[in-house]
Write a structure and sequence with these properties.
With about 80 residues, the protein is mainly alpha-helical. It is built from 3 helices and no strands.
Length: about 80
């Protein structure tokens, strides 16, 4: 009960505690989601990277230098 009386005297501190708990909970959910998403998307990212590399090779072979420079400029930004 002592903490209840303290919270009643200092609502700002109580709100801060609730905010910190909520942020910690949200961060935990985000980390769990990131791990799940990483495992699901791992193959997709690899395929996308492979497609991107093949596209670059194709552009080099076709000597489409303007498009290639646009792509490299986009990567550098």
């Amino acid at each position: 009960m002592g903490s209840d009386r303290h919270s009643a005297r200092d609502p700002e501190r109580s709100n801060l505690s609730l905010y910190v708990l909520a942020e910690a909970h949200n961060s935990l959910i985000q980390v769990k989601f990131a791990v799940i998403a990483q495992s699901i998307l791992k193959d997709w990212v690899f395929v996308s990277l492979k497609t991107c590399i093949l596209d670059l090779v194709e552009k080099i072979l076709k000597k489409d230098l303007h498009k290639l420079s646009v792509i490299f400029t986009a990567f550098l930004k």
